[in-house]
Amino acid sequence: MTEDTLLQHASRIRPCPGERVSGDTVVVRALDRGLLVAMVDVLGHGPEAHALTGVIDEFLTRFGNDDVLSLMKRLHEHLKGSRGAVAGICAIDSSTGCTAFAGVGNTAMRRFGSAETRLVSQAGVLGQNMRTPVPQTLQLTPGDVIVQYSDGVSDRFTTDDYPGVLHHEPQQIADNIVQRFGKGHDDAACVAVRYSP
């Protein structure tokens, strides 16, 4: 887990059973006033999907910024000709708690804490057929937790199923979500961020 004075984050990635590497990836990059957090799921799984995660990691680490809509469009162009991927990208301003999000495909982004909120991704596949994502904003309050996860995690859990999401450390949250709600036939990944000003 990595910590700064305002944000704490951690992730867990588990390959599809029978595979050694995953087609899911998480990228967290420091911004001038916070963090860029991306959850990416390359189509398929295994070594070929994993190879594309390296391309995506490098791109987002190099070019990541707080303009999530522009970044998503640029990633779409960068992945043309590839097997494609789906992604959720958010930029969190650590001083204000203001969070911008854009998503394409079936990754999930949820907020737990002061309220339970689910942000919605646009249908499509990066590198293939992407409608322009609709940027969304979320105002975090102290103690809120954001989780993003791939479709290898069942999306039906609530705080009744996992009350610890409200007070566990980010690494424990990411581990538990993948372990408890991960599907047995796909890669599974989760990144958790707690806002603690």
CATH superfamily: PPM-type phosphatase domain
Order of helices and strands: EEEEHHEEEEEEEEHE
* Total domains: 1
Within the largest sheet, what's the order of strands? Answer: 1-2-13-12-7-8
CATH class: Alpha Beta
Describe this structure in words.
By secondary structure, this protein is α+β, with helices and mostly antiparallel strands. The chain has a single domain, classed as Phosphatase 2c, domain 1. It is built from three helices and 13 strands; from the N terminus they run ββββααββββββββαβ. It has helices at residues 47-63, 68-78, 170-181, and strands at 2-3, 7-14, 24-31, 34-42, 85-93, 98-104, 108-112, 117-119, 124-125, 129-130, 136-139, 145-149, 188-195. The strands form three sheets. It has a six-stranded antiparallel beta sheet with strand order 1-2-13-12-7-8, with helices on one face. Strands 3-4-5-6-11 form a five-stranded antiparallel beta sheet. The chain has a two-stranded antiparallel ribbon with strand order 9-10. A hairpin with a 3-residue loop joins strand 1 and strand 2 (7-14). The longest helix is centred in the N-terminal third of the chain and has 17 residues, at 47-63. It is globular and about 40 Å long.
